[in-house]
Amino acid sequence: MTDQRHPKETGAPIARRTMLSMLGAGAAALAAAPLLQNGWERLAATDPTGLLPGPGGFRYFSVAGSVPERTAADYQLRIGGLVERPVTYTLDELRAMPQTRVVGDVECTDGWRVPRTPFSGVSLAHLLDLAGVRPEGKALRFTCFDGVYTESLTLDQARRSDVVVALDMQDKPLTHERGGPVRLYVAPMYFYKSAKWLSGISVTEKVVPGYWEEYGYDVDGWLDQSA
Ligand SMILES: Nc1nc2c(c(=O)[nH]1)N[C@H]1C(S)=C(S)[C@@H](COP(=O)(O)O)O[C@H]1N2
Ligand SMILES: [Mo]
Question: Sorted alphabetically, which Gene3D superfamilies does this protein's record hold (predicted)?
């Protein structure tokens, strides 16, 4: 199924599994496993090949060995960089904002796919409007409270109506395993663009390639819309 539907997979990203083992990600996944409550997730996280299906077709991914859990009591999202009004939001403040629901396909470059998945939260465009992007701001850099993962979008991509700072997935609060309490969801792109455990959004002058993009992933991770 994958080759025809995902022509981009014939490129550099295919090498990830090899690279992951070089980075010792198998050990990292093992270290993370005790934090996972669900048996399937635990099994999937300890599978260095990433081939085991997780619940609902998702697979657990983290480039960090262990990720602290954040709740409404200690979660913060910081928005800064080239903005007029830098701000830090709590989870309650994000929940109190107008919520946008986006239904899109989830698709990893590894070939697994979860079609028609609803994500809801605050539209990224809305957050950018509140912060006031300065004229020299052209891109965004996303950081995560795992302390490792980063992502990027151009400002034009970020302002699309199908890009959301998600609090819910499938109409339930995002679990820790799925990147909660807050993750990005970039519906028109491969799932690596959807940073889990989102903690920072910084407006930059130009795109700074994210974690996987440093290893050759396309910074413009568009899904094949014709498929
Ligand atoms: N913080 C963080 N976000 C991340 C990743 C990660 O390792 N760390 N992996 C990315 C990749 S490659 C995919 S496919 C999805 C996996 O999300 P899931 O674990 O909820 O299935 O998260 C993306 N966002
Ligand atoms: Mo992925």
Answer: Oxidoreductase, molybdopterin-binding domain
Whole-structure pTM value: 0.83
The answer to whether residue 221 is domain-embedded is no
- 198 closest CA partner among 31, 70, 57: 70
Number of structural domains in the chain = 1
Measured CA angle at 187 (ends 62, 221), to 5 deg: 70
CA–CA dist 148, 151 (Å, integer) = 10
Question: Residue 96 is part of a domain; what is its CATH number?
Answer: 3.90.420.10
From CA 102, how far away is CA 120, in angstroms rounded?
6
Measure the CA–CA gap between 107 and 44, rounded to whole angstroms: 17
- Model confidence over 30-45: pLDDT tens digits? 444 444 445 555 555 5
Residue 38 is assigned to a structural domain of this protein? yes
Bond prior to 135 in cis (omega within 30° of 0)? no
Q: Which residue minimizes the CA distance to atom 22 of ligand 1?
A: 192
Instruction: Note down the domain range covering 65.
Output: 14-215
CA distance 69 to 84: 31
User: How far apart are the CA of 194 and the centre of ligand 2, in A?
Assistant: 9
